[in-house]
Amino acid sequence: MKLSSRAHAATESPTLGLTAKVNALKAAGEDIVGFTAGEPDFDTPEHIKEAAREALARGLTKYTPTAGTVGLRAAIVEKTQRDSGLTYEPKQVIVGCGGKHVLYLIFQALLDPGDAVLIPAPYWVSYVDQTRLAGGAPLIVPTVEADDFKLQPAQLDAVLALNPHVRALILNSPSNPTGATYSAAELAALAAVLERYPQVVVIADEIYEHLTYGGVPFASIAQVPGFQARTVIVNGCSKAYSMTGWRIGWALGDAALIGAMTRIASHETSNPTTIAQAGAEAALRGDQSAVETMRRAFEARRTLIVDGLRALPGVQCLEPTGAFYVFPNIAAHLGAGETADEFAARLLEASRVAVVPGNGFGAPDCVRLSYACSEANITAGLSRLAAFLGA
Ligand SMILES: Cc1ncc(COP(=O)(O)O)c(C=O)c1O
Predict the structure, then answer these.
(1) What is the CATH number of the domain that holds 220?
(2) Domain extent at residue 141
């Protein structure tokens, strides 16, 4: 069958693809130590599940408004005021089927052919494909380990000066895959550059907002004076509340942009699942202690995995300040012409350890390990890695 050129251009998400492969190997009885999962290994907190059960019992099984229930949108407005000190009106909020879906809607609503999206690398895999699917052009700007993988103001200025077609900038903090977290001062410095380029919308992917470590506070570029109006915030329940399968994410921003996203969604998904919205509302309004319990567990695992990786010969590893990934540089272990793809394949084949190669994130010298897994898994994986690397 002849498929569209759009379909040909779309690549499979390498993280989802690899996780599926690892799960299939495990199901076939293979002894695999997996570091590929992009989701917390905890169960969704009980009070959230109870709210969804109750919604079912109350018969909340019908369509809701496309942008989400009035109750959930109000809870998102209150949550954003509480956590970020930012005031929004309900018409500035859309709930979608996960953060991934609202990002897709943002690109669809913002981009015309020829518009570029500035994506600092390493980047989360879907930004590139979603930009292309909307007819836009990804403009990848590499960042370096020496800068903690953070976009530098002078670099941003140079790229924007040369590329007048940049319509949007993606800022993902804390970052998947690097774990880098921009401070308020760093965001203010980037904002000072953006002042000179008013045509650029900032897409602030804050899905890991609640997962920062070592006392590093979360900051949003929308908090920089004057920047709320030109920022669209993406957030959701997946990571903070261990609700990846519930598929609830949202965007907050300019009412015209949110309105356009809502019109597009009205022909696409309609509303996110009604019962999941009830659970999300309970997550945002209810007891927040589970979020901190999970964050602490991730913080302890971060220390374990970073210390272990740093002890391996020829492995460079920044200490992540957020999310639940480490992104070590394994260039010293690559054969001539070899990239992380082949390294990861060798590692899986020889030592039954699954990591995500950095190629898909725009960093072919690195691999991503998720530490959203048990300490026993981390310890076993580290000792297999040590043996593999001849340590
Ligand atoms: C940086 C980033 N943004 C957005 C998402 C989307 O998450 P979800 O669609 O589950 O809300 C993810 C999930 O892996 C992510 O890592």
Answers:
(1) 3.40.640.10
(2) 46-285
